């Protein structure tokens, strides 16, 4: 079970590495810095929180299955997906104002605007990744 988890984590990191690699080849330091800052914001504000929530989902589904409450397993999965989706409401607001917040934290204005745009464009993919993580935890339970 540990091998598929490691492979999944490497593939997850490969998406961000690919974005950084291609932006780095454009020889525009501001773009590379903006993508790096955007990746950091996404990792801290979304992936860390959703993976923590989905970790609880894994425990709840395993316990429900062990107690032979099979209908509760699917209910936990759907509730977990709803909670992760609701989490995106404040995250989208934070991403929308990310450039203002980052400039207030003394970051470069141009890089902050690039990070904001990067984060906003990745919202559908990040949401899909969190739904995939919930389903993966459900199936591994």
Explain this structure.
With 141 residues, this protein is mainly α. The chain has one domain (2-140). It is 89% helix and 0% strand. It contains six helices and no strands. The longest helix has 38 residues, at 29-66.
Per-chain topology:
Elements: H1 2-24, H2 29-66, H3 70-96, H4 98-104, H5 109-121, H6 123-140
SSE sequence, one letter per element? HHHHHH
Shape: elongated
Indicate the structural class: mainly alpha
Question: Could you give a short account of the major beta sheet?
Answer: none
Report the radius of gyration as a whole number of Å. Answer: 17 Å
* Quaternary state of the chains: single chain
Average pLDDT taken over every residue: 89
Q: Span between N and C termini? A: 11 Å
Question: Can you summarize this structure?
Answer:
The protein is an all-alpha fold. It contains 6 helices and no strands.
Structural descriptors:
141 residues, single chain, elongated, 0% strand, mainly alpha
């Amino acid at each position: 079970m540990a091998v598929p988890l490691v492979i999944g984590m490497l593939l997850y990191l490969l998406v961000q590495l690919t974005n950084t690699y291609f932006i780095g080849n454009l020889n525009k330091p501001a773009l590379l810095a903006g993508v790096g800052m955007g990746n950091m914001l996404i990792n801290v504000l979304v992936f860390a929180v959703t993976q923590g929530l989905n970790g609880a989902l894994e425990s709840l589904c395993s316990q429900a299955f062990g107690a032979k409450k099979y209908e509760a397993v699917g209910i936990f999965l759907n509730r977990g997906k709803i909670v992760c989706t609701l989490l995106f409401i404040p995250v989208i607001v934070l991403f929308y104002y990310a450039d203002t917040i980052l400039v207030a934290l003394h970051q470069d204005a141009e890089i902050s605007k690039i990070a904001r745009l990067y984060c906003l464009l990745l919202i559908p993919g990040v949401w899909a990744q969190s739904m995939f993580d919930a389903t993966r935890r459900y199936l591994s339970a």
